[in-house]
Every structure is written in structure tokens, then in C-alpha cells.
Design brief:
Layout: H1 2-5, H2 10-30, H3 39-48, H4 64-89, E1 91-95, E2 109-114, E3 165-169, E4 175-177, H5 185-194, H6 210-225, H7 228-231, E5 234-236, E6 244-251, E7 256-260, E8 263-266, E9 269-270, E10 278-285, H8 292-298, E11 306-308, H9 314-319, E12 333-339, H10 340-347, E13 352-357, E14 382-386, E15 393-395, H11 398-411, E16 416-419, E17 422-425, E18 428-430, E19 432-434, E20 439-443, H12 453-456, E21 459-460, E22 464-474
Helix pairs in contact: 2-3, 5-6
């Protein structure tokens, strides 16, 4: 009887050989050979058939209800498993949620994302529900914490290049208050401390010392933990369960980036902006108003355009080079994001009297990476900052520790301290550190309306999800369904550049 179970057609043995090879290669990739204990089940499916995997099929004639129900369950399970593996290793859908890449990729664009371009990753948390990133729609985690696999990635047919649009897991999303995803947890802690600890004179013209920064973060973390009712439960997420972001790569491992008056430099050379790059501008008219239709025709987001009371903002407007009208009035003042092409069109309009780019003034402080540099760098004038590369070494000075601590501690899982001019790495005195991963610098094309690396820092290689391929659906948030909501012209648009 047992011997007869091995007498199978050649086709069954061929199928077994193929699936065995795939399974063994997968186990070798994962690096956990305990999974070989499941191999007898694969062998049984094709050869021995001790387990009646399709037992319900014998009831096709005698119990059609049972047969139908089980057939549907079988089809659904197969579909879920197939979707799980496709979504995990091959392709993934991504919807553009914000305007950070306008006009290149618009809010409402649905993208097909290739995970093979840069190489599929081993999931940190393999036991999860398909098509759900981290939380079910009705609440609760969509994944099981254990097992957690180490980072590995198969070689892709491409690598991240300068100018690529990249989908990645949010680096600062390791710790998240569930009711407040933006700003990130670390910024929340820093801001909370700023409201508690008095300002010092050094903060306005230099970088905050390490001891002072760590003190503030400890105070801020305590405050955030006490605000669970407002901010929500504090959860820690594995890399692959953090929010998915999409930005443009403007800095590669080993390069140095710098911003001067909104101009981006990479290794000292001006970065060639893509056509869709835009900035915020203040636009003064002679009293005439921009209609929603006019803004839409210009390609300006109606939703994100605002009108200011010019008199209220007069001191700021004056400092950025604007003047009141002849009668002393300011309004109306529109704030709109525009590309260079749209800017020239707006300037040529008879109704427009003045246009000035939005500027960050020296006394205006906002969260910036690294947080101790909040009072030295800003959104428009930033760096220079070197991007870590795998195998490269830095000296563990106070300045370097402030710049690269998240990489060393959060992403490469070390302990790091700095006391009395001495760095302690994993409890031992150290003078240098060798990076274990490559890092990237990501920014949005909508430079004044983008939460990007300027706010939360480097993107490690293990956070890279994939490369957008094309737009498969596009819905315009500024218009109704029967007024051109579906942007047919964007279907099939290359989303990678």
C-alpha cells in the first residue's frame, strides 16, 4: 500500500522537483532551515497523498451544498495566498495621498509598484493578512510580531539612481502614537520638551550640545507617554509594517547634499530639477479673484491654495520683498504652489501686481533633521550633509553623533552614548563607526509642501520597497465625478521619473 503511493506519473515527480527547488531556495534565502520540517507536507501533496487535501470533492454528487461551500473556501484561500505572495515579492499598489510630488505625481494617482526592480525583500513579519499594511480597517494589528526575519534582499535588475521616484517604509515610523502620525514621534518629543525647558542663547545661532539634546528628548518622551488620551497608544512597528511613503531620490550613498536659497546641490553641483518641481509663492492681485476654474486650468491645486489677510502678514510680506498697493492695502494675497512654467503665466496676468517666493526667515524655526540643528538649518538652507554608505567610516565626534545617531542606533541597532568627550558604542569606548547599510536622501518635488528627509533624515536600504512603474488610475480631488474626476490622460503614465 505504501509502495503504491509512490507510483505516481512522471508529471507529479516533475512538479515535486520544481516546487522542492523553489522551497529550498526560499529557505536558503530566509536563512532558517527549521522550515524544512514542513517539506513532508509538500511531498505529500504531490506524491504520497496521505492527507486528503481535497476531501470534499467526493461529495460533488451526494452533497452539493458541502461541495460548493468548500470549493468556494478553497478558491478564496488560494486567491489570498496568491495575492499575499504577489504583493509581498512582486508588485504592490500605492495611492498618492499628498501633494509632495505635485506636479509629477498628483494626489489621487494610483501606482503599480515593482518590488523586483530593486530586489524583493524578505518580510520582517511574514505572518500577516494580505493587502493590509499594519492595521485592519476595523482596528487591530494585521500581522503577528513573531517570527521576525532579518533583512535580506534578492538582487534586482536595477538599483536606486539619482532622480528615481521611490516607494519606501517611513524611517521615523518605528515608534508611532496611533492618533498622531504627523509629526513623527521624535519630533513630538522634541517639541514637547521645547514647551517645558527654557530656551538658551546657544539655540539661536549654533547646534544644540549632545547632553542638552538628550535631556530634552527624555523630558519630551515622558510628556508624550502621558498624553495617550490625546495622541493614542504608543506602538513600535517592524520595518515592513511602517507607513509607505513615496519621494524622489536626490542623494545617493556617499554623496553630500546641500540647499542654498531653495537650490539643491549634490556633491557641489546643482541638481537638475525635474519639470514638475514647484515652490510656494505669494501672489498679489489688483483686487480681482482667482476662480477655482482658473486655478485648475493653470494646474494649481485648488484645495491647497489659500488667501491671506495681507495686513495681518504685512511684516513678513515686507521682509520677503513685497509692498502694499498705492492705497496702502495689501489684499488679496494668494498662496499657491507653482512650477516655473506656471509662475511665468501668472506673472503675465494683468490682474497680478506682485509675486514673491515663500521664504524661511532666520527667526522662524521648524522641525528639521537632525533635531539639534533646528536652529542652524531650515527647509530652504540646509547642510552640507554627507549621506552614509555601506562600509564607510566616520569619526565619532559630538557633531557626527548628533547627525548620524538615528542611523547607528535606530536602524543598525547599536547603543551609543557620548560623555565627557568620549563616545561609547555598545558600552565600549569607540573613536569611529563603520556603517552596515547604504542610505538615501529623499525629497518631494513640491519643495515647500513636502515632509521629507529634511524633516526625518536618511532612508536606509532595508526600508526601500520598490519603484513605481506606471499610473493605472487617476482621480482629481478638485472636481466632481461627472465633471472630469477621472484623469484619463494620466493612465499608463511613467511614474518612475
Amino acid at each position: 500500500m505504501i509502495n503504491s503511493r509512490f507510483k505516481r506519473p512522471v508529471g507529479s515527480w516533475v512538479k515535486l522537483a520544481i516546487w522542492s527547488l523553489i522551497y529550498v531556495l526560499f529557505i536558503a534565502w530566509v536563512g532558517n532551515f527549521w522550515w524544512m520540517l514542513l517539506y513532508p507536507f509538500i511531498f505529500d501533496i504531490f506524491i504520497t497523498k496521505f492527507i486528503p487535501w481535497t476531501w470534499w470533492k467526493k461529495y460533488e454528487q451526494t452533497n452539493k451544498t458541502l461541495y460548493t461551500i468548500c470549493s468556494w473556501i478553497d478558491a478564496i484561500v488560494f486567491a489570498l495566498v496568491a495575492v499575499y505572495f504577489i504583493n509581498l515579492y512582486l508588485f504592490q499598489n500605492y495611492q498618492i495621498p499628498s501633494s509632495s510630488l505635485e506636479q509629477t505625481l498628483k494626489v489621487g494617482d494610483f501606482l503599480a509598484v515593482s518590488k523586483c526592480s530593486y530586489g524583493p525583500r524578505i518580510p520582517n513579519t511574514p505572518l500577516s493578512f494580505p493587502l493590509v499594511q499594519h492595521t485592519f480597517p476595523w482596528g487591530g494589528k494585521s500581522y503577528i510580531e513573531k517570527p521576525q526575519w532579518e533583512y535580506r534582499r534578492l538582487k534586482g535588475w536595477d538599483k536606486v539612481e539619482l532622480g528615481d521616484i521611490v516607494v519606501f517604509n517611513f524611517p521615523a515610523g518605528d515608534t508611532v502614537p496611533l492618533l498622531c502620525a504627523n509629526p513623527d514621534y521624535y519630533t513630538l518629543c522634541f517639541q514637547a520638551s521645547q514647551r517645558t525647558i527654557a530656551f538658551s542663547t546657544f539655540e539661536f545661532d549654533s547646534v544644540m550640545p549632545y547632553d542638552n539634546f538628550m535631556e530634552r528628548m527624555a523630558v519630551g518622551a515622558k510628556i508624550v507617554r502621558q498624553q495617550e488620551s490625546q495622541l493614542g497608544e504608543l506602538v513600535v512597528r517592524p520595518v515592513d509594517r511602517r507607513e509607505n511613503y513615496v519621494k524622489r531620490c536626490v542623494g545617493l550613498p556617499g554623496q553630500t547634499i546641500e540647499l542654498k536659497e531653495n537650490v539643491l546641490y549634490v556633491d557641489g553641483k546643482v541638481f537638475e530639477n525635474p519639470k514638475g518641481v514647484q515652490h510656494n509663492y505669494f501672489v498679489q492681485t489688483n483686487g480681482a479673484a482667482f476662480s477655482g476654474e482658473a486655478l485648475h486650468k493653470l494646474g494649481v491645486s485648488v484645495t491647497e491654495t489659500s488667501v491671506l489677510n495681507g495686513a495681518e502678514y504685512a511684516p513678513y510680506l515686507t521682509r520677503i520683498g513685497m509692498e502694499p498697493k498705492n492705497n496702502g492695502a495689501w489684499g488679496p494675497i494668494y498662496v499657491m504652489a507653482m512650477t516655473e512654467e506656471v509662475l511665468e503665466k501668472v506673472k503675465s496676468m494683468p490682474m497680478v501686481t506682485q509675486v514673491a517666493v515663500e521664504k524661511i526667515l532666520p527667526e522662524m524655526h521648524s522641525p528639521i533633521y537632525p533635531l539639534p540643528y533646528t536652529y542652524k538649518w531650515n527647509r530652504d538652507n540646509y547642510g552640507p550633509l554627507w549621506i552614509p554608505a555601506k562600509g564607510d567610516t566616520i569619526q565619532l565626534t559630538e557633531d557626527n553623533i548628533l547627525r548620524y545617531r538615528p542611523c547607528i542606533v535606530n536602524y543598525e541597532r547599536n547603543t551609543l552614548d557620548y560623555r565627557d568627550g568620549v563616545a561609547y558604542l555598545n558600552g565600549e569606548p569607540a573613536t569611529e563607526y563603520v556603517f552596515k547599510m547604504d542610505y538615501y536622501w529623499m525629497m518631494g518635488d513640491n519643495r515647500h509642501n513636502s515632509a521629507d528627509s529634511r524633516m526625518w533624515g536618511f532612508v536606509p536600504e532595508d526600508h526601500i520597497v520598490g519603484r513605481p512603474m506606471f499610473v493605472w488610475l487617476s482621480l482629481d480631488r478638485d472636481v466632481e465625478w461627472f465633471n472630469g474626476k477621472i484623469r484619463w490622460s494620466r493612465f499608463g503614465l511613467d511614474a518612475s521619473k
